[in-house]
Amino acid sequence: MNTKKLIYIIYDNLKTLIGALIIAIVIRSLFFQPFYIPSSSMEPTLLVGDRIFVSKYSYGYSKHSFPFSPNFTNKRFFSKSPKRGDLVVFKTPVDNRTDYIKRLIGMPGDTVQFVNGELLINGKIILRKKINNKKITRCGNFLLDTNTFIETLPNGFEHLVSYKKRGSLQNSKVFKVPQNHYFLLGDNRDCSKDSRYLDSVGYVNNLNLVGEAKLIFFSNDTKVSSLLKFWNIDKSFRLERLFKGL
Questions:
Q1: Which of 24, 122, 178, 194 has the largest CB neighbor count within 10 A?
Q2: Strands 244-245 and 142-152, how do they pair?
Q3: Is position 235 annotated as part of the catalytic site?
Q4: pLDDT averaged per 10 residues in sequence order, the chain, 246 residues
């Protein structure tokens, strides 16, 4: 093979590779991005091992819509307001790098507080209906004895939440959500680092919103078997969660 032909083959393959990479970046940045759920903070809605697709266009675009969050702007383009109850992926304010997923509970200007174990938004108790008297919920390497409820937010949105049967958070300070910020909580209320922790998460700026979780496209119980142990996939694969809408 002569040198010119070799150079042409290398150039052609490199061009194809760069083209595919650009297409992947465009799709990931502007349309949908896959995420892996590594923790139990969103149980029972999301389980460890869920793989989800997140819509990048739901709230418009900011620097955090792109890989590595390039600091080219402090504006959000084609901005759309999130809705209370959305499953939001965001960059944590403390480092602007780590991706978290939580449920949007408090809108700008709202007050959020826990009183005697009840969630209050703007001073009103949020209704919840118990649907399970006893359920074992994960919390890292621990198992929690929890109750599961259907919680109804002020806009009528319903979703599942878990609270520990004993030792659940009873009271908190009043959180006043600043303008252009949001207050987010994990559905696994006693095993979630979220907006209640002002030193690590706190109120989430509009610019930090990455997208809205839309779909579980695959789920594997990593406590049973990893994907590398493909011969055990039938024991860990959660067929009922395949292409489940969120």
A1: 194
A2: unpaired
A3: no
A4: 73 82 81 93 94 96 90 90 97 92 98 96 96 80 90 97 91 97 97 94 96 95 62 74 93
